[in-house]
Amino acid sequence: VQLQASGGGLVQAGGSLRLSCAASGRTFSSYTMGWFRQAPGKEREFVAAISWRGGSTYYADSVKGRFTISRDNAKNTVYLQMNSLKPEDTAVYYCARTRAGWYTRRPDEYDYWGQGTLVTVSS
């Protein structure tokens, strides 16, 4: 399985970005997928996750109400729509696939990771 994240960039506070994560492999639709981020000098943190059919979504408190995770299993792609961005959202964003298939916030329970895409929010 290979994951390719894209869509990062520089945006002003209050702006929006949409991240995409394209997956190879036929098992994409069977797994919960997640987005994590890592800011300089900080640990990688959970951002959002979506169940294999997309019926359940989960968010970190820091992004709830501003970010929306979605997926298109026909395109093997998961998205992260980020609105009302804040400078503290600046980080490298990673998509990942859960090891066991079900929801978790723990990075060590995700086995495949994309290469990361940088999001920079200016004040």
By secondary-structure content and strand pairing, the structural class works out as mainly beta
The whole-angstrom Rg is 13 Å
Fraction of residues in β-strands:
over 45%
Number of helices: 0
The total count of strands amounts to 11
- Outline: globular
Low-confidence stretches: none
**Mean pLDDT value:** 95
Q: SSE order in H/E notation? A: EEEEEEEEEEE
Distance between the termini: 37 Å
Major sheet summary line: 7 strands, mixed
Helix content: under 10%
Can you put this structure into words, describing what you see?
With 123 residues, the protein is mainly β. Helices cover 0% and strands 49% of the residues. It has no helices and eleven strands. The strands form two sheets. Strands 2, 4, 5, 6, 9, 10 and 11 form a seven-stranded mixed sheet that branches. The mean pLDDT is 95.
List the helices and strands and how they pair.
Layout: E1 3-6, E2 9-12, E3 17-23, E4 33-38, E5 45-50, E6 57-59, E7 67-72, E8 77-82, E9 91-98, E10 110-113, E11 117-122
Parallel strand pairs: 2-11
Antiparallel strand pairs: 1-3, 3-8, 4-5, 4-9, 5-6, 7-8, 9-10, 9-11
Features of this protein?
123 residues, globular, 4-stranded antiparallel beta sheet, 7-stranded mixed beta sheet, mainly beta
